[in-house]
Every structure is written in structure tokens, then in C-alpha cells.
Specification:
InterPro entries: DCC1-like (IPR007263). The chain is of the alpha+beta class and about 140 residues long. It has one domain. It contains six helices and four strands. The protein has a four-stranded mixed beta sheet, with helices on one face. The longest helix has 18 residues. The N terminus and C terminus are likely disordered.
């Protein structure tokens, strides 16, 4: 996948739902992968997220995965999923394929399935506060 942003991507910040078991599991999985691009994980809706990205719609980041590039690029949904895989050494070829017309429906289906599972398992907590910030 070529990230078409006009600027090189040197770091990605992933805003994840700290009250969602699937999101937390994926966060831990990402931390265990070999990165081609450094990743920073911040709980969506947290004080840290609001401070780092004051102009962002933080309510929306709790509904849909959001990834932010070091130059302010923003990806959500299937695009965010693809960019996360693109940052990983073992999964960049899969991200390249998912970004194609043939692969994109699979990325979208994956996100729809994850959203359905997430909706059924999220603990229902309100937006995160600074206590859910997990170093990483």
C-alpha cells in the first residue's frame, strides 16, 4: 500500500476504545508485532487524546478506529485498519492487497464484523478519562 498523503509517514497514533475487549486485544497484538513505522496507542476519548488532538471529534473516535499520522493525516474505519497493517513488517503485503479494489471489500467486511462484535461486548462505559491511559 502506498500511503498517499503528500507527506511521508514516520509515526502513527492509534486511538482505540479502552472499554472494548476486542480493541484492547488488538492493541496488545499490535504491540507484539515488528513495526516498520512506530506506533503510539492512546485510548480514544481520553484526556491524553484530547490534549494531543484538540480539533478532533473525540466522540467519533469512540465509535470508529482512528489512526493519525505524524503530519496530521487521519484514517478511520477500513482505511485505519489497512494503515495499521501497513505499519507492520509481517503484514504490509496484506495491507497492500487490502488497499486494492479486489481487497477493499475484505477490509470493509472485517471492520463491519469487528463493529458488530464490539457493539455486543463493549462494557458500556462512558468516554475514557486519564485513568485508562495505558503506557505504550
Amino acid at each position: 500500500m502506498t500511503v498517499r498523503t503528500g507527506s511521508p509517514v514516520h509515526r502513527l497514533t492509534i486511538l482505540y476504545d479502552a472499554h472494548c475487549p476486542l480493541c484492547v486485544h488488538v492493541r496488545h497484538w499490535l504491540l507484539g508485532q515488528r513495526w516498520l513505522v512506530p506506533l503510539r496507542m492512546i485510548p480514544a476519548g481520553s484526556a491524553a487524546a484530547r490534549q494531543a488532538y484538540p480539533g478532533l471529534d473525540h466522540a467519533a473516535t469512540l465509535r470508529e478506529i482512528t489512526v493519525i499520522g505524524n503530519r496530521g493525516q487521519i484514517w478511520t474505519g477500513a482505511d485505519a485498519f489497512i494503515v495499521c497493517l501497513w505499519a507492520l513488517a509481517e503484514h504490509r503485503p496484506k495491507a497492500d492487497w487490502l488497499a486494492t479494489a479486489a481487497g477493499r471489500p475484505f477490509a470493509q467486511a472485517t471492520m463491519l464484523a469487528a463493529a458488530a462484535w464490539r457493539g455486543a461486548t463493549r462494557d458500556g462505559s462512558a468516554a475514557c478519562d486519564e485513568q485508562c491511559e495505558i503506557p505504550g
